[in-house]
Design a protein that fits this description.
- By secondary structure, the protein is mainly β.
- It has no helices and 34 strands.
- The radius of gyration is 23 Å and the shape is elongated.
């Protein structure tokens, strides 16, 4: 157990706390950690699993590195670590990084302030990123799942960004993005496939940004109960179809842009897009800007309410109404 310490690391490539291979099941809690330098880290977990990192305060003005790093390689990885209730304030560092093949980690209820880099960056499967507050004002993403990582859950986070809010990378499949509120620039970027996105609010408050962007070969994603709004001038669409052949479904959602609600770029060369009960914020049909050379099939569906009664006006219970 590493508990209630004040730790300062000032050298390049140094770690304030380093947990290695045999140090699994360590508790790191209530420490005040400061570090500077290049390629340094506040807490570095390598080849180590089942650790608990909680209620620490981490601050850095270093130029690269991260506040908390989970890493491993060569088949020896770091799994089942719990990172929760930490307060992280960094300038040119990422806040929390899980490097490739590090799975089943939980990142919960952390408060993260990042000036130039990313808030939470995941390279692994089956991780749970829940109820964090992330403020990333620079060029990095608030929360990102990088390429070819599956079955992660991003749930109930509040993300405020200057660049991209939540990013699902190319080759990332079967991830769940649910109950999040994102505010700032490009709120949600989808480059993966077969992902589920439910009950999220994506609000753009920075000019020349889109609420939702598809790209990177994304296909077969499903969106339910989404509010995607662009609330500031410039070129901004609620839904931006960016490239290649796209298939997706969106249902029971609101799209509201300033340049239009749906934009289909020239680079889009096919795909099927199924919309059911999708309106803009005034409950009217959404507005479409379709580029001249773009190609795809847009299917727009609406629910039908039917009332079955007998000739005397009484309700026909359990009636079967078919079109």
């Amino acid at each position: 157990t590493i508990f209630n310490n004040s730790i300062v690391a000032s050298s390049n490539s140094s770690y304030a706390i380093y947990a290695y291979l045999s140090s699994s099941m360590t508790t790191i809690a209530k420490n005040n950690i400061n570090w500077t330098g290049t390629d340094a880290a506040g807490i570095y977990i390598e080849f180590s699993s089942y650790n608990t990192i909680s209620n620490n305060t981490l601050n850095s003005s270093g130029t690269t590195g991260a506040a908390i790093v989970i890493t491993g390689s060569g088949g020896v990885n770091s799994h089942y670590n719990r990172i929760f209730n930490n307060s992280i304030h960094v300038t040119s560092n990422d806040a929390i990084v899980a490097d490739p093949n590090n799975n089943n980690n939980t990142i919960l209820k952390n408060k993260i302030l990042v000036t130039t880099s990313s808030g939470i960056r995941i390279n692994g499967d089956n991780n749970n990123i829940t109820q964090n507050y992330v403020n990333a004002t620079g060029s990095g993403a608030g929360i990102s799942i990088n390429s070819a990582n599956d079955n992660n859950i991003i749930d109930g986070n509040i993300v405020e960004v200057g660049s991209s809010g939540i990013y699902i990378g190319a080759g990332c499949n079967s991830n769940y993005v649910i109950n999040n509120a994102v505010r700032g620039a490009s709120a949600f970027i989808m480059a993966g496939s077969s992902n589920i996105v439910i009950n999220n609010t994506f609000n753009v408050t920075i000019a020349d940004s889109h609420a939702i962007t598809f790209g990177g070969g994304s296909t077969n994603n499903t969106f339910y109960n989404i509010t995607a709004r662009v609330a500031i001038g410039g070129v901004g669409y609620a839904l931006n179809l960016n490239d290649a052949h796209l298939n997706f479904t969106i249902r029971d959602s609101i799209l509201q842009g300033v340049s239009g609600d749906l934009f289909v770029k020239d680079a889009v060369n096919g795909g099927t897009w199924n919309f059911t009960n999708v309106t803009n914020s005034t409950n009217n049909a959404f507005n479409i800007n379709w580029s001249v050379n773009a190609n795809g099939t847009l299917n727009v569906h609406w629910y039908l309410d039917a009332n079955a009664t007998y000739s005397n006006g009484t309700a026909a219970n359990q009636a079967n109404v078919s079109a």
